[in-house]
Design a protein that fits this description.
Elements lengths: L13 E3 L7 E3 L4 H4 L7 H12 L3 H10 L11 H5 L8 H14 L6 H13 L6 H5 L6 H15 L4 H13 L7 H15 L17 E5 L2 H5 L2 H13 L3 E7 L3 H5 L2 H17 L4 E4 L3 H10 L12 E4 H10 L13 E3 L3 H5 L4 H11 L30 H6 L2 H10 L3 E3 L3 H13 L5 E3 L1 H8 L4
Parallel strand pairs: 3-4, 3-5, 5-6, 7-8, 8-9
Antiparallel strand pairs: 1-2
Helix pairs in contact: 2-8, 5-6, 5-8, 6-8, 12-22, 16-18
């Protein structure tokens, strides 16, 4: 047995797994897990596990039987590196403690075991796919953890706040229960404020025959309406024929493996684009929404090819600068570094475009090492940050490696062109006392181009 008690402070509440005594963690109370397991019966657990594991069995079987336990995935995981190389944080251990045990026991496990599975699957793996890059056989560990999430979701054992987001999406197709009139109010408020300087400024919505449908997250009109203003200015100065979507395309359902709601959200995007006769879809600075549209949901919808070209906002900015539709007025002099979002760089290959943008707008760009597709995750994606405040402390502690990366650059600005990355990096910068400001790419555009 590997004893880890010495890593905890005196009188600190800890949790020890009944199945794997080496799995020792700081105790975190979450009613979505702790209370929901009380409703489970052995029969329900066994039935659910076997129903899920009965599907995609060949893909899962190939992955599990191919693993040679070589350990090369270990150093690829930011959780493992940030937790003093505790072996229970290795990707292979996470699969072994959860999915392998379910298969070994043929689904005959207890509610307490499901508690372990939920914590591991939802808070100790961001499904960033970095470990799969270093696996000599390319085993998709994120897929295996996704199977665990699916089982937990069907059993109703999911971090409370994350599940609430999914309830909201399944009921209203918005993550924050936002009524559409409030959304329109935010747009009109930004129009009024901006029209003081730009008389004919508009944020069009439900406009037909457009070149670009700009899709966003409900958090922007609800909590940060200034982002609407920035995007509106970019479109205005670039002369884009566009429309702003009034729908929330945050896909929290993808994180909990709610396939039905995940498909509904993505189908809504494409149906809106058809209705408005859009040529392209541009997604706000959000990695997971882009991944859901481009990769995750289309196969479930039966699409062999995407019905529309889908760009992340930064890929769109790249086009605007390359074609001269936006021009640089001045460069930022402070040293800057870049957080490569996993869904945008590792999974979509946009790393070089991000660097083109930064080098055009900034005088002193300092890379983190490793970077691009090899960069470490922000530890906020994959639904971890959506698990909410109960998990914030352990989330930040599990990305010490990212804090070290940022510190090593000496940068005063960290550009994080993804909502989850932005909040996750902000929390890391604050927790580890790093003297740096976190900005979106549109913030940099606002400071350096004629849109200011």
């Amino acid at each position: 047995m590997i004893k880890k008690e010495s890593k905890f402070k005196e009188n600190q509440a800890i949790y020890v797994s009944k199945y794997f005594p080496e799995y020792i963690r700081e105790k975190v109370e979450d009613p979505g897990i702790d209370e929901k397991i009380k409703n489970l019966t052995p029969e329900k657990i066994e039935k659910t596990i076997n129903e899920v594991l009965g599907r995609l069995s060949l893909r899962r079987k190939a992955a599990i039987e191919t693993c040679m336990h070589c350990g090369l995935c270990s150093d690829a995981c930011h959780h493992y590196l940030s937790r003093d190389k505790d072996p229970t944080y290795t990707p292979v251990s996470k699969v072994k403690i959860t999915l392998w045990e379910m298969i070994k026991r043929k689904g005959k496990v207890s509610p307490e075991f499901i508690r372990d599975c939920a914590r591991i699957a939802f808070t100790e793996c961001t499904q960033c796919h970095r470990c799969s890059m270093y696996c000599p056989f390319g085993i998709d560990i994120a897929f295996l953890i996704g199977q665990v999430r699916r089982i937990c979701f069907l059993l109703g054992v999911v971090p409370y706040i994350l599940m609430d987001y999914n309830y909201s999406l399944s009921a209203t197709l918005t993550q924050l229960w936002i009524p559409q009139p409030d959304w329109i109010d935010s747009l009109q408020w930004m129009e009024e404020e901006t029209s003081v300087d730009i008389k004919d400024f508009q944020v069009p919505f439900n406009k037909e025959g457009i070149d670009v449908l700009f899709v966003t997250l409900g958090t922007e009109p609800a909590r940060a309406p200034q982002y609407i203003q920035i995007i509106g200015k970019i479109m205005y100065h670039a002369g884009i024929n566009w429309s702003y979507s009034l729908k929330d395309y945050a896909n929290m359902s993808m994180f909990v493996q709610d396939y039905f709601t995940m498909q509904r959200i993505v189908r809504e995007v494409f149906e809106e684009a058809v209705k408005l006769r859009a040529k392209r879809i541009v997604v706000t600075e959000c990695g997971h929404a882009t991944f859901a549209l481009c990769k995750a949901a289309p196969p479930l919808l039966g699409y062999k090819e995407l019905p529309f070209e889908v760009l992340h906002a930064t890929e769109f900015y790249y086009e605007l600068l390359k074609t001269g539709k936006l021009k640089i007025k001045k460069k930022i002099k402070e040293p800057v570094t870049l957080q490569d979002p996993c869904n945008l760089v590792r999974k979509k290959g946009a790393g070089d475009k991000l660097r083109y943008l930064i080098n055009e707008m900034c005088e002193d760009f300092r890379e983190m090492y490793p970077n691009k597709e090899h960069n470490f995750c922000c530890n906020a994606g994959g639904g971890i940050i959506a698990a909410g405040s109960p998990w914030k402390k352990v989330r930040v502690e599990s990305n010490k490696v990212k804090a070290e990366q940022i510190k090593a650059t000496g940068a005063k600005i960290v550009i994080a062109p993804c909502h989850n990355c932005h909040v996750g990096i902000h929390d890391i910068v604050k927790a580890y006392n790093i003297n740096a400001e976190v900005k979106f790419m549109w913030d940099i555009l606002l400071e350096t181009t004629e849109i200011a």
